[in-house]
Amino acid sequence: MMRPQCSVLDLRGLNIVAVLGVGILATHCRHLLETRRPDAASPAPPAVLSFHAVHLGWNVALFPVLFFFSGLYYTDVVSALSVLAAYYHHLRRVREEASSLLSDWTVVVAGVLALLMRQTNVFWVVVYMGGLEAVAAVKALRPEPVARPTMTTMGEYVRFYAWRYSVGDVHDPPLNTAWPDDLFFSILSIGIAALANPLRVLKKVYPHITVMALFAGFVAWNGGVVLGDKSNHVATLHLAQMLYIWPLFAFFSFPLFLPSAVGLLRFLRGAFGAASGKNAPSRLAEPSPSTPSRKHTLPGSSQTGSSKKQKIRAQEDEPGRQVADAPAASPFVNALQTLISSKLYHLLLTPTLVALTFAVVRFNTIIHPFTLADNRHYMFYVFRYTIRRPGLFRYYLVVPYTLARWLCWDTLGGCGQGGLLSDHTGDCSGRYTASRPGPFENSPFGSPAQRARAEKPPATEPLEEEALEQPARSGDDTADDDGNDSKAAKAAKARHDPFAIVTLADPASQTTEPPASSTAVLLLLATALSLVTAPLVEPRYFILPWIFWRILVPAWRLHGHGHAAAAHPALARLERLPVLGSLARFGKRFDVRLILETLWFVLVNVVTMYIFLAKPYLWRSEDGRILDNGRMQRFMW
Predict the structure, then answer these.
(1) I need a labelling partner for 463 at 20 to 30 A (CA). Which of 366, 439, 471, 473 fits?
(2) Can you give the residue ranges of every domain in the chain?
(3) pLDDT in tens, 466-483
(4) What is the distance between the alpha carbons of residues 204 and 97, in angstroms, rounded to a whole number?
(5) What is the DSSP string of 15-61?
(6) Is 397 helix (H, G, I), strand (E, B) or coil?
(7) Cα pseudo-dihedral 219, 225, 231, 235, rounded to 10
(8) Given this model, what pLDDT does residue 341 score?
């Protein structure tokens, strides 16, 4: 109950309520992501909250930087709550091809409220969510499929794919199958589709444009973005922020890196085995597109679609049409095909990224005066013992920057992405691989398997309220016909049981699905825009980037690699043990990383709160005089 006069306790109590709201909204945002159908043949996902979504939501609320400031009166917690509320509304909007006027103006109101909390939220409510709206608008197009013609010149490739992209046949694979060239073609194809369908895109994003216009008007009226001390908050190009973010993510989220660590150990074991002449365990080779296996066939895929699609696929798979009769492609096309399909460009891309990292460290390391002056904050000591150390120490940090960046990106893509460090099995994240293409794969230089891609999901998916009514109606119809509910109707009702526990073992669960390539690119763009304009390095600035990254990280189940349908020998032995066997079986149904993450967050929170409460100190000048009127200072984020 509020006192007659607002007290410090009341103000801090507001943040306690807000952090609970952040956890609840994170749960429901994750739930909306999990209940999107990846293709037309996938079964309807459970309408109730998964155990993973609930646990993830409370881990987000326990995120140490966010949780710490929930006990103080800082705007960061309410700011995160307002942005998540806008994100929750966005996730409901993109489930419908056409949105109502009320929904559009809710976007404007939610965006303005988020900007009132923190001005840099404009990058999340306009760039990130507005970009996702534009992507959803072009992906909702349903162009008629066509057979890919024989092309020999670069001009023919450009004309054909520019046309296909303009009608909405875009390239946007899930992140677990995406390479850098896929990210490029994803951006290119969606950009072409948006330019070719401006009215369709504008109809979805005009609320975000309205928010941006209001923000621009505020900046013009205020003379800047900042409401308070403008002199110490001048927008500055600070590219080093995009280096600091990855070690921060790695420190807080290292339990999530377990699959990446397992993949790295497996790769090193195979490499040492090959170097020593020993036969390393054979990796599970995925079936080629010409010889699909039962395990890698999507049930009810687009092969059961319309007769026109079947005819086109039959033409593409016709055995007589092989390269023997096709005209030879130009040398430039052949060279480009080889470069992209073999991923040889990584030999240039990786050193280039490392060189750019060195350049940023050398020319764009900015140390704000506040960082040097305020020894209450942990960042003061981080800079003191790392970046500000004499000599070449700051250049040595390029190694942890690079490693942490790879771990964060690898974790976002999920387990079993293929390539050097991991081989995909049926239990890995994502249902699509190079030989099982998803519905939004259309790269000019992609695998021939992408011609047999899955059929696109419906442009409009029912929300939970509508889905809850459907099983009841189907059950009533069955009762009228047969006198009792069928097993199918009972199963449908069970999927909406509010007391059901949806685990990773549920065959209809989409919990392990990674995000689309465009989503990852937009997340990176919004993160960069929100950070590189800030000269001051503050852990609070990384709260929203971490929350959005964490919500998108797919779930992981305990499983083996490279042994086909059989269990990994080590995992099979583990399951036979009394206690560890129960834990292993638990890990097949629940993401054990969340438990480790919870324990780590609790430990960090206990330590930081203990230091804050039990280790106060006085500010003193160099000559020993007590400063700040003798007020006790406390360590904090």
Answers:
(1) 439
(2) 144-196+437-461
(3) 444 444 444 444 444 454
(4) 9
(5) HHHHHHHHHHHHHHHHHHHHTS-SSTTSPPPPSSPBHHHHHHHHHHH
(6) coil
(7) -110
(8) 86
